[in-house]
Design a protein that fits this description.
mainly alpha
Length: 156
C-alpha cells in the first residue's frame, strides 16, 4: 500500500507545481517588504518570473537525475523499493551539494585571482583562473564519478 501511495505521489507531482509554490512564497515575502512604489513592484515581478524559471529547471533536473540514477540501479519509479529510492535520493543529494559547493568555490576562486592578480600581465590572472577552474572541475568530476559507482547491494 505504501508503494502505491509513493508511486502516485511521484507520478502526480509536477516540477511546475513545486516551482509555483516556491515562487509564490518568494513573491509574497518580497511584496511584504516593498513600499507602494510601482517600479519596485515591477522589478520584483521580473525577479519572481526569473526565479520561477530557475526553480522549474532545477526541479526538472533533479527529477531527471533521480530517474537516471534509478535506471543505473536497474529499477524504475514503479518497481523501486523504499530503501533503494531513499538510497538514490541520498546519493543525488550528495552530488548536488558537492556540485553547488564547488561551483561557489570556483566562482570565489576566479574572482580572487582577478582581484589579487588583476594588476599584472593579462596572462597571469587568466592562467591562475584556468588552474582554479581545472582543479574545481577535476575534484567535482571525481566525486561525481565515485558516487555514480556506488550501487545498492544485490540480494545474493
Amino acid at each position: 500500500m505504501l508503494q502505491k501511495i509513493r508511486v502516485n505521489v511521484v507520478k502526480n507531482i509536477r516540477p511546475v507545481y513545486l516551482a509555483g509554490l516556491t515562487t509564490s512564497l518568494f513573491f509574497a515575502v518580497g511584496v511584504h517588504k516593498i513600499d507602494a512604489q510601482a517600479t519596485l513592484l515591477a522589478r520584483h515581478a521580473i525577479y519572481t518570473s526569473i526565479f520561477f524559471v530557475c526553480m522549474w529547471a532545477a526541479c526538472r533536473l533533479v527529477a531527471a537525475s533521480l530517474n537516471r540514477r534509478l535506471e543505473l540501479e536497474g529499477v524504475n519509479t514503479e518497481t523501486a523499493g523504499d530503501m533503494i529510492y531513499t538510497f538514490v535520493i541520498y546519493l543525488e543529494v550528495i552530488k548536488h551539494v558537492v556540485g553547488v559547493s564547488f561551483t561557489l568555490g570556483w566562482i570565489a576562486g576566479v574572482m580572487f585571482c582577478w582581484d589579487y592578480l588583476g594588476d599584472r600581465i593579462f596572462m597571469v590572472p587568466v592562467s591562475a583562473s584556468l588552474a582554479v577552474s581545472l582543479t574545481a572541475f577535476l575534484v567535482t568530476y571525481g566525486i561525481s564519478g565515485f558516487v555514480d559507482n556506488l550501487h545498492w547491494p544485490d540480494e545474493e
